[in-house]
Design a protein that fits this description.
This protein is α+β, with helices and mostly antiparallel strands. It has one domain: Glutaredoxin, CATH 3.40.30. The protein contains 6 helices and 4 strands. The chain has a 4-stranded mixed sheet, sandwiched between helices. A hairpin with a 5-residue loop joins strand 3 and strand 4. The longest helix is centred in the N-terminal third of the chain and has 16 residues. The termini are far apart.
Length: 141
């Protein structure tokens, strides 16, 4: 009986935490990110990468994984990370890449709560501050 109660409690805990956002990290579940953005009245910052992209990896290390970048982004946007190959991209990532014509990697998009494309942040991203400045310029319009 005790094991059943522990199992049910664990399942309940996991289900209740499935879409709980934690500040300053990239979300990877599109539905949860969209729900969070809607609830908070924020747009999504969508980073679309490819697993074999050296520019994606370089920018991830230099900019997108940095705490100062994520802390600043998290104030006004919900960050969403999607990764799929250039060729034959399928699933949600492929659908978003096609929908927003994000054929280049990395692609950094600002997408409104209703799914409209607000902006494509131009590549290349020189450093954390210049990338944040580009994002701010689109948000202030």
């Amino acid at each position: 009986m005790r094991n059943i109660i522990i199992a049910i409690s664990t399942i309940f805990l996991l289900c209740s935490c499935a879409c709980q956002p934690s500040p300053a990290y990239w979300r990877t579940d599109v539905n949860c990110a969209q729900l969070e953005a809607k609830e908070k009245g924020k747009a999504l910052l969508v980073l679309i990468t490819a697993p074999d992209c050296s520019a994606c990896e370089n920018n991830w290390c230099r900019i997108f994984s940095r705490k100062e970048f994520l802390n600043e982004v998290d104030k006004e946007l919900v960050p969403l990370y999607l990764s799929c190959p250039y060729q034959n991209a399928t699933g949600v990532c492929g659908a978003w890449r096609d929908k927003y014509d994000a054929s280049k990697s990395p692609s950094l998009l600002i997408v409104g709560g209703d799914g409209e494309l607000i902006a494509t942040v131009p590549f290349p991203y020189k450093d954390t501050e210049s990338c944040l400045e580009s994002i701010r310029s689109f948000l202030s319009k």
